[in-house]
Amino acid sequence: MSDPELSRDGEPSFGEFTPGGYHRRRPEDYVRGLCLIPNDLYDFVLASQPKEWAKYKGQHGEAAKAKLVDRVASEIARSGTLSVLRQGVKDTGVHFKLAYFKPASGLNEETSRLYRANLFSVIRQLRFSSKSEESVDLGIFLNGIPLFTAELKNPITRQNVEDARRQYIERDPREPFFAYGRCLAHFAVDPNWVFVTTRVSHENTRFLPFNRGRDGGAGNPPVPPTRSGYPTSYLWEETWARDSVLELTRQFIQEVEVVDDRGRKTGERFILFPRYQQLDCVRALVADARTRGTGRKYLIQHSAGSGKSYTIAWLAHRLSILHGLDNERVFDSIIVVTDRRQLDRQLQSTVRQFEQTLGTVENIEHTSRQLKAALEDGKTIIVSTLQKFPVIAKEIG
Questions:
Q1: Both 146 and 236 in a single domain?
Q2: Using 50, 70 and 90 to split pLDDT, how confident is the model at 264?
Q3: Which of 134, 190, 313, 383 could form an SS bridge with 153, CB 3.0 to 4.6 Å?
Q4: 28 by DSSP, 3-state: which?
Q5: How far apart, in whole angstroms, are the C-alpha atoms of residue 369 and residue 198?
């Protein structure tokens, strides 16, 4: 993916730039009342699921396309984009998938074809509102469904990432496009800094850094003299690359329910997007385990409040489905161990919430006997305290 040049209006001048093989769409291709690019959605379904489409069209005739688009729009409004991309939609007995993710083991010819059928597109100056001509600098779409937005600022015009953040804070959260769960992340970007939020809510909008770090602190390292681009080029070169976006959507982005100190649900929910160091850490460990297999030791440094429980949960789930270069499963079970009971409750809750298949996670909340049974049964992910192991050490040794 090449870097966009910054123009004097403070936004990238893309020219032929299409991030990671994206299709460039015009602002008018986006239908504001639906919050979709209908033609992209239709083209994806037709290319990837012709039999389902033929059945659906047989039921609805010439109204089939409009009916499908309306059905997807209403389901996103009800359940959110993340759920729809993972689960698809059903209508009049026909089930449509709205994204194809990379399987854990090797791609065969058919899964490879379906994976390639995913249609990525980008719109510059996306006019999102049905009430005005307001626009956001960049909209990124998967199969016609909005995933990410970005406000891009340039110090040449005396604007920086703080202006981008302020722009999001001033957006009207009542706009359907900015409704909770519609877009999965909003990025505030300048040549040196990136911040991300998953919820636009005026003064309650909370941005987190999405920077690589510099000299043990905040920010991004400068671009080496041998390279062109900006300190934030990794955003479009890595994070927005097609494979990365699909992995983020399938494995990393999560809707999380807030729990109190006792592990009780509060009823509040939020969409969790990984920080850069979390994403980088999990991907590096998974890649090494895929190549080198089991029996390795790693030491990961996490500062206080930097989301270590989330990193552990992401890593546990990724390793639980990991296949090696031989397409064989690498680990039989993933065991998460802590020496503090309060942290154990927090980890149990976090790892459980990331569960996408019921029964994947076994929380050891009672006795060592429960732990022994989970190990013998080969449970996929086991979460326990260290104190339960000495009791059964001889039996499992």
A1: yes
A2: confident
A3: 190
A4: helix
A5: 41
Hey, what are 5's tokens? Answer: 């040049």
pLDDT of residue 354: 86
The length of the chain, given as a count of residues: 397
Domain that residue 36 falls in = 5-242
What does the radius of gyration of the chain's CA atoms come to, in whole angstroms? 23
- Poorest-pLDDT segment among 46-55, 61-70, 179-188, 377-386: 377-386
Q: What is the DSSP string of 354-372?
A: T-SSTTSEEE--S-HHHHH
Cα angle: 10, vertex 15, 20; to 5 degrees: 100
State how far Cα 69 lies from the chain centre: 23
Buried b (16+ CB within 10 A) or exposed e, 172-198: eeebbbbbebbbbbbbbbbbbbbbbbb
pLDDT of the residue at 397:
56
When pLDDT is averaged across residues 95-106 and rounded to a whole number, the result is 90
User: Between the CA of residue 18 and those of 9, 128, 384, what are the distances in Å?
Assistant: 20, 21, 46
Amino acid at 290: R
* Strands 12-13 and 5-6, sheet pairing: antiparallel
Question: Which band of pLDDT confidence, cut at 50, 70 and 90, is reported for residue 180?
Answer: very high
Instruction: Say how many domains are in the chain.
Output: 2
| pLDDT on residue 353 | 86
pLDDT of 10 higher than 50:
no
The token pair that represents 235 in the structure block: 């955003």
Neighbouring C-beta atoms of residue 2, cutoff 10 Å? 15
Furthest CA-CA distance within the chain: 70
Tell whether the torsion through CA atoms of 77, 236, 199 and 280 is positive or negative: positive
For the entire predicted model, the pTM comes to 0.91
Please report, for residues 70, 100, 116, the alpha-carbon distance to residue 92 in angstroms, rounded to integers and kept in the order given.
Answer: 13, 22, 27
Looking at this protein, which amino acid is placed at residue 19?
P
pLDDT tens per residue, range 23-57:
999 999 999 999 999 999 999 999 999 999 999 99
Which three-class secondary structure state does DSSP give residue 338?
A: strand
Amino acid identity, residue 284?
Answer: A
Residues 49 and 192 both lie in one domain? yes
Both 298 and 215 in a single domain?
A: no
